[in-house]
Amino acid sequence: MNPLLQQFLSEARDFLQGIGEKLMQLEKAPTDASLMTELFRYVHTLKGNSGLFEFPEMTRVLHAGEDLLDAVRNGRVRYSQELADRLLDAMDFVGMLCDEIEQNGAIGAVYANDSARLGESLRKLNVSAHHPVEDKANHSDNPVETTENLTSAPARPETAIPVEPPPAALADIPEALRMKAYAIAQAGTPLCWLVYTPDEQCFFQGQDPFFLARQTPEFLWGGIVSREDWPKLAEMDAYRCLLDFHLLTSAPHTTLDEHFRYVADQIKIQPLSPLSFIIPVGDTNGGPVYEDFVGDALEFLETGNFGGLERAALTMLELSSPDLWFSSALRWLLLVLEHDPDNRPVLSGIVESLRNLDQPEWLDLQSQWQDQTVLTPTIPAAVSIESTETALPSGIVSLSSIDDFVLSLLAIQRQILLLPITESWQLGRIKSVAATLQGCLKAIGEFDQLASLAFAAEQSLVQSAAVPLLSWLDEQFHMPGKMAVQPLGSQSIEPSKPAETVETQPAKTAVAHEISTTADIDGEIKFGRRAEDVTAVGAKSLKVDQAKIDRLMNLIGEMVVSKNALPYLAGRAEAVFGVRDLSREIKAQYAVINRIAEEMQDAIMQVRMMPVSFVFQRFPRLVRDTARKLGKDINLIMEGEDTEADKNIIESLGDPLIHIVRNSLDHGFELPEIRRAIGKPMVGTLIIRATQESDRVIIEIIDDGKGIDPEVIKRKAYEKGILDEMALERISDQEAVNLVFAPGFSTADVISDLSGRGVGMDVVKTAIEKVNGAISLVSEKGKGTKIQLSLPLSMAVTNVMIIESDGQLFGIPMDSVVETVRVPRADIRMIKHSLATVLRGRIVPLKPINTLLEISAPPLANDDDELAVLVVRLGEESVGLLVDDFRETVDIILKPMSGVLAQISAYAGSALLGDGSVLMVLNIKEMF
Amino acid sequence: MTIEFKKNQVFFKNEVGVEEAELLLEWLQKKTAPKADFSACTHLHAANLQVLMATTLTITAWPVDETLTVWLQSALGVS
């Protein structure tokens, strides 16, 4: 794996951690702008970094996250729990991808789907939270708001809008090419319309949008248009990109995303139905004069005489100039006949359009195409024929069939009116519905109602709402409910609607203009972002491999040891060689070296020190997720997160702490209803606090849950055989509660009916004791539980007391030493078979260390016949060790035993002394 | 040079880079009825393109590359 990737992974993990943290903090203060900005910056930088590598799956999710956060940051989307949930999910996914990369060096293709799904879910949040604002923006004159809306437009899933109008620019494509495209699309290859709006400043970023556009895969046609009117040449800035690229391609969406992945926010892809290509163009030659042909053609269609229709069209085509609009439409008619002869609505639509030389309107058919995602919609032939007939005022049909058909037509109009109107161009729908209704009224001879219809339609347009027209419709025809559920398949082509085409045009130009402004704003933001990146890079920390620090640690250890040789040397100079001056000089030098070495040791310790926040930082998430899962309301308070301890200590803390916290959440806290019933605040409080006490770190986990019932523990302990009857009577409540730490106590069946503490508590205890820590538990039934962990600041340097026994030196960790006393031999009694003495009114059992170590020599007394007793702590009790003599205490670097010696548990390890000799350090707990 | 000016006519050759856009703009600002020859051109940086799009231009020769021609024709308003 290359170093850059390695660094990326390590940084990515930091960022993910940071993101999680910020999200947690935001949950408490959702309006904190600076937090939001920082969160955004994290995601943004992480996304940027991921872009350095080929990880589109990762970049896609991060990009979606970034967009969403940007929207939140700018107040367009509100921060919510759901949003946080999804973002956390997404970040978990990214973390998983990081693992995957670390293991395999690449991301497997299997993640592509998840990535797309997550990206989509984030984008949806962006969109759905978006609509209210959008509506407002449409009616307000605030251009900023409007443009901001459009920023997210490319992200919007295409299906969010019921029917997307085909891009107007399609008409710019030469007819021959459009016909080819139609054939391709009809054959089953989906085509896409891609609008690429490069950033205005893109030339300065070394981009050539034209080149990128030219390289589009499966490229069919491309066009370039300007975003705004060209300035005068004299005022023109050649390096401000004002170009928009329009592309027609048959490449799949994913390939396009891949190709434009670096400018993903600047492209908009719209799937095209084959119908969108049918745009007859040409000279209208003064107006419609083809009534005869239209009549004939419709008749051919009606009778299914395609051959006749084709011949008629060919004849007309020969007779007409090829430049005419009419000829163009005929060519299309022939093409559709060739490729999709069963699609009568389309055929009749084209024929109809010849009547007025108006664009055939495919909007409804396209909605069908989008709904069904079937390329050749199969429409019941009978219905479509009927529809053609009714659309014709001159059609000769029986009265009953008119009624039926008109009713179904009305039902469809009603459905159309029920669609939400969110965009200005959708007002065209109202117009079209009005036109259709007008046609219907004429067809059934209800001319009287025309005026009221016109009024209702006008009202609808003025209010930009379908309601007036809808109520008119319901009033006039007493629409029964079942009408509304007519299958969409019976929808027919509506009579052409000149009003809509006119309406659509200005709206589109407006959109185009707004897009250009958007790009402008976006450009500025991006520049701002770059500046932010710079500050992020400037952080003054260094990442060092832990092995290097460990080596340094070992070296300083050896240094300390060899430094300790100097006093011996001084002693020898004086005693053996009799040079007192030299001895004094050596001692002076030693003092200097000693000071430096100590400082150095301290400095390296500092490097190894880590704040407990390293472990604590995962708790907000853990508590939040677990609490939500359990349906509990818990407020987590963390204190003293910057308390520091050695890295090894901190790392060993992680699992036990999680265990404890999880236990507390699961079994300690009551459900909110129960809490309220017993008069506690609904929200439980969990405090995790770290403090430093001299050379130890104290970590407390305090909850205000239901606590532990000592009676239950006692009973269970008795049942488990941990306690006998005698002990059961004697044991105090506090001692009983601490039984949860007893090995074997923590099996699931015991725990499930208990208040719970104790699931694996012996494991926790063992883990803590491994790093010379201690754990204690205080619990009050109904009030809560407090667990206290006490850990050494550092494991690297151990303070030991040296004792002498049978001419050998042993080290005993100062942690366990209570006191050193000299006891006259006369004060030592035999109780049963053990020695004991009374110290300050308490009986202290005595053990000769020689016996424990299986040395046959008896303990030596001093000149006053006093024995040296080293009182050590052994769990809750004190024991006196009979030794020969006490020596000094020293700081040593304890090296664990290796090889076969590692099996001997009586030794905690060994250390080098100043004179080069080896000191064996005893493990008191293991000796008894 | 990928861009060459002769009297009223500009010749584009091979791949015209982004730096040329400034020269081109300066030249166009001075000319009243400029002509352009793309016959030897294989690619044109977008900056050049938009400068040309902002001008009224007579094109004397289109590129050999057909797809480039299609692009240019759509951009320069001739079809």
Chain-wise SSE layout:
The complex is a heterodimer of chains A (928) and B (79).
Chain A: H1 3-28, H2 33-50, H3 56-73, H4 81-104, H5 111-128, H6 131-139, H7 143-151, H8 175-186, E1 191-196, H9 209-214, E2 219-226, E3 243-249, H10 253-259, E4 267-272, H11 291-303, H12 306-319, H13 325-339, H14 344-356, H15 363-372, H16 381-391, H17 399-418, H18 427-443, H19 450-463, H20 467-477, H21 498-537, H22 546-563, H23 565-575, H24 580-608, E5 609-611, H25 613-616, H26 619-630, E6 634-639, E7 644-646, H27 647-668, H28 672-677, E8 684-693, E9 696-703, H29 710-719, H30 725-730, H31 733-737, H32 748-752, H33 761-770, E10 774-780, E11 784-792, E12 797-805, E13 808-813, E14 817-824, E15 829-831, E16 834-839, E17 842-848, H34 849-852, E18 866-874, E19 877-883, E20 885-893, E21 907-912, E22 918-922, H35 924-927
Parallel strand pairs in A: 6-8, 13-22, 17-19
Antiparallel strand pairs in A: 1-3, 1-4, 2-3, 5-7, 8-9, 9-11, 10-11, 12-13, 12-20, 14-18, 15-16, 16-17, 18-19, 21-22
Helix pairs in contact in A: 1-2, 1-4, 2-3, 3-4, 3-5, 4-5, 6-7, 7-21, 8-13, 11-12, 11-14, 12-13, 13-14, 16-17, 17-18, 17-20, 18-19, 18-21, 19-20, 22-24, 23-24, 26-27, 27-33
Chain B: E1 3-6, E2 9-16, H1 20-30, E3 35-44, H2 46-53, E4 58-61, H3 66-75
Parallel strand pairs in B: 2-3, 3-4
Antiparallel strand pairs in B: 1-2
